[in-house]
Amino acid sequence: MDQTKTSNNVISLKNINWKRNGNQILNGVSWEVQTGEHWALLGLNGSGKTSLLKMITGYQWPNSGGEVSVLGNIFGKTNIPELRKSIGWVSSSLDQEYQSRPNDTALEVVLSGKFASIGLYEEITENDIKKANKLLEQFRIKHLSNQFIQSLSQGEKRKAMIARALMSSPRLLILDEPCNGLDIYSKEELLTTIEDLTAAPNGPTILYVTHHIEEIVPSITHALLINSGNVIAKGDKKNTLTESLLEKTFRVPITLEWDNDRPWIRIKSMLATVKN
Ligand SMILES: Nc1ncnc2c1ncn2[C@@H]1O[C@H](COP(=O)(O)OP(=O)(O)OP(=O)(O)O)[C@@H](O)[C@H]1O
């Protein structure tokens, strides 16, 4: 066995199938993510991205056969709730959960990340407060520490939620459409903080889910393209983010350009000529 490769393995999926109500939602998906790589996950609505993420976080299990291993833990032989402490997942559903706690401050929200709880119920230490403040500073929202989370702008709230996820020092961080609803400036600002995050030594491996390929910032190294539960392509982003593979994934004719190591697409023609 190649020991070096095994120890660098962040995610290993082997032949994952998931079927619901007669529909094949994931079809023989195999995927390896190594330490030092950051991946973008791209696919149309309903293509299976969330199902794949739920597989990785142990909220869903393959129907038959297949093997899931995350951070060296083989599913079926590991304590999943314990493993989840090493995985951060930031999605808009988290914002919704905090709607029931309008009086939590940004600092409290970040602190709650230590316990993966919605709200703070456990004792916090001086060190926890120091760490939360450092994260607020890193995301340039330290001045908002004592402001209620619900009064923050979308962009500020999104940063607070990522800071919250980092409070438990995850080794794997899932950013599920983090720029949704952000204006151009807030989006670029958030992307800059994500770039900083990947540059930090011992930072988490990032899985970045998006519908907007220009959000694939230079530090995202790899991409997985999925369509109807089938992997269309996976690997180094320069080899995966190509016109033909993206057309196959998104089912519209596009042109692709790279600018400052970021991919940009334009739709060539309207849906009347959609490729099947
Ligand atoms: N528990 C379930 N039972 C039945 N079907 C499901 C279940 N979960 C997901 N699906 C179906 O699986 C398909 C893939 O859903 P999934 O949420 O993984 O897509 P997605 O790529 O994340 O989409 P989006 O970009 O819209 O979030 C969809 O057709 C969805 O209806």
UniProtKB/TrEMBL annotation:
<dbReference type="InterPro" id="IPR003593">
    <property type="entry name" value="AAA+_ATPase"/>
</dbReference>
<dbReference type="GO" id="GO:0005524">
    <property type="term" value="F:ATP binding"/>
</dbReference>
<dbReference type="InterPro" id="IPR003439">
    <property type="entry name" value="ABC_transporter-like_ATP-bd"/>
</dbReference>
<protein>
    <submittedName>
        <fullName>ABC transporter ATP-binding protein</fullName>
    </submittedName>
</protein>
<keyword id="KW-0547">Nucleotide-binding</keyword>
<keyword id="KW-0067">ATP-binding</keyword>
<dbReference type="InterPro" id="IPR017871">
    <property type="entry name" value="ABC_transporter-like_CS"/>
</dbReference>
<feature type="domain" description="ABC transporter">
    <location>
        <begin position="11"/>
        <end position="253"/>
    </location>
</feature>
<dbReference type="GO" id="GO:0016887">
    <property type="term" value="F:ATP hydrolysis activity"/>
</dbReference>
<dbReference type="Pfam" id="PF00005">
    <property type="entry name" value="ABC_tran"/>
</dbReference>
<dbReference type="InterPro" id="IPR027417">
    <property type="entry name" value="P-loop_NTPase"/>
</dbReference>
